[in-house]
Amino acid sequence: MEELLKYAIDVGLGEGAEYVEARYHKLTESYVAMRFDKVISIGKSVSEGVGIRVLVNGSLGFASTNILTKDVLEETVRKAIAKAKALAKQHREPIEFADIKAEEAKYDVKPKIAFENVSVEEKIKLYKQLLSNLRSSLQKTKLQTFFIEHMESTEEKYLVTSEEARIRSVIPRVMVYGGYTIYSPEKGTMQRTFEKGGSGGLELLEKWDLIRNVPEEAKMLEEVLLKGVSPPKGKVDVIVGSEVVGLIVHESCGHPSEADRILGREAAQAGESFIKENMIGRRIGTEKATVIDDPTIPGSYGYYLYDDEGVRARPKYLYKNGVINELLHNRWTAKVFRVESNGSARAADYTSEPIIRMSNTYLEPGKLSFEELLEGVKLGVYIKTYMEWNIDDLRWSQRYVGLEAYLIDHGEIRGYVRYPVLEITTESFYSSIEAVDKNLEFHAGTCGKGEPAQGVPVWFGGPNVKLKNIVLGVAPY
Amino acid sequence: MNKLDEDEVLDLAKKIVSESLKQGYDDVAAIVNYRNEVMVKFANSQPSIMQNWNIISISVYLAKDKRVATLDFEVSNEEEALRYIRNYISEIRLSESSEYYTPLPQVETKIKRIEEAHESIVKALENPEEISEEILNTALTYDIDKLAGVFNVTIGLEALSTSTGVETLESYGNYEFYVRVFKDEGSGQWASAGRILRRESIVEATKIAAEHALNSKRRENIAADVYDIVLSPMVVANLFNIVGSMASAFRVDLGLSIFANNKVGDRVASEKLTLVDDPRNPESYSMTFVDAEGVSTRRNSIIENGVLKTFLHNSKTARRHGVKSTGNAGWINPHPWSLEVTSGNLSLDELIAEVKRGILVTNNWYTRLQNYVEGMFSTVTRDALFLIENGKIVKAITKLRITDKLPRILRNIEHLGRRRYQIKWWEAEIPTITPYMLARNVHTSKHLL
Question: Taking the CB of residue B353, how many other CB atoms lie within 10 A of it?
Fold first, then answer.
């Protein structure tokens, strides 16, 4: 493969490209899908090919193929260059890349329990047990639907660039996605979908302990469905649980900090950003608002040590003590902003150009216990989980509808709240953070961006967070 | 794997079926797809990247002793795909029989539909820079700040072979274009898609986006409330991508559908609404004559004059529901191919004239559901948004959310526009041919802090 990639580089340089990057990228995935205790299907997918990116006359071209012969690869490179050249005269601002130190590296994640060491039979048995426990946990409602999908994947990459970068990596991951509906004749339905993900092997299943945690949560949702009341009116304190906090920082800090979005490159798709080029240093929240994006967390779903432009990864402090501090950069945006790339370029597969992505984005935890967060809340709501959410295309106005939610009365959890709505601007959220606890948790998701849309694995997380003086809405149920 | 010609695409599908049967699988279907695709992405009124794909993909359906598996390959040689298939027999034996298993339908469809893609598509694939220039030049005739968007063109071949004797080969060629234009505080977005690339469609989409941007360059706040809402074809396409997908009988089984508690014959929408899936429309971006099981596709009314007429089925869901396949396979999940909302008889001005106090929403994104069975959802408006009072647009307004229940919106559709547009873009992946639509009493929300 190395020889083939080097050949692609040579062809590109011979055709006059200023920069050529060839990435062999293979994704192998296996799944098991079940509905209740029955298997729907199992399966496998393998995608393997080469993505080539060229910079020529200030114009960027990308081409990919899974026909891995020298001839087709050569034709693919030539096509990428010819098309990029043809568009060059339509550029008003030539594209340039910031310099990097070209590195040679090889890294991988070693699973403790390899995929092949647990049979499909055993996985089916595990999820049957989960369902059985879930049914047992529900005393007052009927389980109307249940589905689960188990996914294992291995991502292998080999990146070679005309600047002599050589990066190889192998990352196995596990993901479980499921959902269920509970039903009460008097109260209707309540639905939950859940996702777990991480890098590593099947030891992650033990860590997640889904057969215990999913039924425990369902038991609480049953109470919320049957006993939940509308949230209190007027200004109250709100404790936002780690899952919701994680999503909020992903949506309202991570995305708007993507420098390509700030420069308008995603304007027709996921939109732009309220953060403008001159806003580094601007206050956006309280001292407690520190958000970090860190690809290097071992075991994380968004784990990598070098990005897909060959730049070494590191933690980025996007908001630091309430101030917009650093953006997510690739080599193009780094050049525009006159900084160094901080290694945020990722490509989902061989058909995808590397673009700026988050990895594992989280709000920095503090030192308090959860009980200490509750103390002093006379009247409030604890929103532990969510289902519906969205945010506008500048990443300013956002909405999260609580699922598992509780009434807080004089520092204690005393009742259930049905579908409280946190609909708030980015600045209002970060400026309302009064305290954060020490319980940092991460949650898995697949983040979408780009055209064609690229889904990449990410973690988002944070501790439980106390917000002051919040007005909650209620969803139309 | 080498580049493939027409016969080789079908031969490869047939070879995969015969080799798989030799391994002991009971039912086999194989789809081989070979495509050439070019995409120009724009930002800041210039190209940001030109992307090209030259890809062979192989998808295989396998069943053994009622155990079901799907395999997807984009691999560098066919032998590797065959090796995975051979090795998978031991894996599938460890699974359990699927409650969805049913033998592949005995249809023996033999179709060979090879047509040259329309010359406009062929030309655009060869010289996308000419279309790109046209788009930029059109936009620059307006006093705008900037333009962003995507122009995409694909030519491909798709072959299907099954163990029941299906052998089909279809060619396709299509384009997708969407554009977003910015002016001061305002923006506008529009889309166009199909199998014939007409210059006037590109120019019109760009013009609509530009006019929406110019007309919304100064915006005022209004309070969230219950409004009559005129949904543009962009918004209808986004919401009906969700509604159309929820007609899949498989999604009903999983509890991911507002039709989960409905039977065929139930009234689920206003009598003004007829929602069709029509893969035989020759103008459709995704026209196709055969589904993944070899069943001939057909025009299916999902909702006719407000009444649920059918769920979308493959042979598996059809057996479970005691009906026949509707030609919408998906080996596991049946899906709509190409959605259409039947037109009404009003012009856009006449639709607006029906509104005493309401909003014209030209675009939206980020539609998410709290509860799929009950259809509780919200979506964020984006781009131009206009307040309507006493039948006339009075001013451009700032963003809010539509925050309601899908079944309620379906029931509250009162008028439909005459002219239809084919929409396909980032937030509406299933091509949708639809007019403007007026829905009464729609709930909206805004951030409270």
Answer: 14
Predicted pLDDT of residue A394: 98
Mean pLDDT of chain A: 97
Residue range B241-265: mean pLDDT, rounded: 97
pLDDT > 90 in chain B, percent: 94
CA distance B446 to A141: 33
Does pLDDT of B217 surpass 80? yes
% pLDDT > 90, chain A? 97
| Residue in the block written with tokens 């451009």 | B396
pLDDT value at B1 more than 50:
no
Shortest Cα distance, chain B CAs vs residue A66, angstroms: 5
Domains of chain B by range and CATH?
A: 6-214 (3.30.2290.10), 219-445 (no CATH)
Q: Looking at chain B, which residue has its C-alpha nearest residue A386?
A: B370
Nearest to B158 by CA among B286, B2, B248, B53: B286
Q: A144 vs B373: CB contact, 8 Å cut-off?
A: yes
What pLDDT is recorded for position B109?
A: 79
d(CA A380, CA B371): 24
The crossing angle, in degrees rounded to 10, of helices B199-215 and B128-139 is 30
Query: Are A203 and A172 in contact, with CB atoms under 8 Å apart?
Result: no
CATH class for the domain made up of A2-227: alpha beta
A359 in Cβ contact with A302 (< 8 Å): yes
Say yes or no for a CB contact (<8 Å) between B48 and A265. yes
Task: Choose among A39, A144, A266: nearest Cβ to B95.
Answer: A39
- Which residues are CB-contacts of A392 (< 8 A; sequence separation ≥ 6)? A271, A398, B366, B380, B382, B399
Locus of tokens 């001939």: B296
The Cα A320–Cα A249 span in angstroms is 13
pLDDT (tens digit per residue) in A205-240: 999 999 999 999 999 999 999 999 999 999 999 999
Pairing of strands B357-361, B385-389: antiparallel
Q: What is the ipTM of this complex?
A: 0.96
Cβ within 8 Å, pair A47-B73: yes
**Under an 8 A CB cutoff, do A419 and B370 touch?**
yes
Is the per-residue pLDDT at A441 higher than 60? yes
Shortest Cα distance, chain B CAs vs residue A272, angstroms: 11
Contacts of A451 in chain B (CB under 8 A): 39, 41, 150, 426
pLDDT at A87 over 50: yes
Q: What is the pTM of this model?
A: 0.97
Using DSSP bridges, classify how beta strands B146-162 and B27-43 pair: parallel, antiparallel or unpaired. Answer: antiparallel
Chain A nearest CA to B324, separation (Å):
20
Nearest to B447 among A80, A263, A425 (CB): A425
Length of chain B: 449
Please give the DSSP secondary-structure letter assigned to residue A252: I
Q: Determine the residue among B53, B92, B130, B408 to mutate to test chain A binding: the one whose Cβ has the most chain A Cβ atoms within 10 Å.
A: B53
The residue type found at B301 is S
* Per-residue pLDDT tens digits for A88-125: 999 889 999 999 999 999 999 999 999 999 999 999 99
Predicted confidence (pLDDT) at residue B3 exceeds the cutoff of 90: no
Measure CB to CB from residue B71 to each of A44, A61, A392 and give the nearest one. A44
Could you tell me the two tokens for A363? 């709000």
Handedness of CA A378, A384, A389, A392 (dihedral sign): positive
Closest CA to A201 of A74, A110, A312: A110
Measured between CB atoms, which of B49, B76, B371 is closest to A48?
Answer: B76
* Distance between CA atoms of residues B339 and B63, nearest Å: 31
Domain boundary assignment for chain A: 2-227, 235-474
CB-nearest to B54 from A32, A67, A181 is A67
Pick from A191, A273, A391 the residue to mutate for testing the B interface (most B CBs within 10 Å): A191
Show the tokens assigned to A94: 């030539």
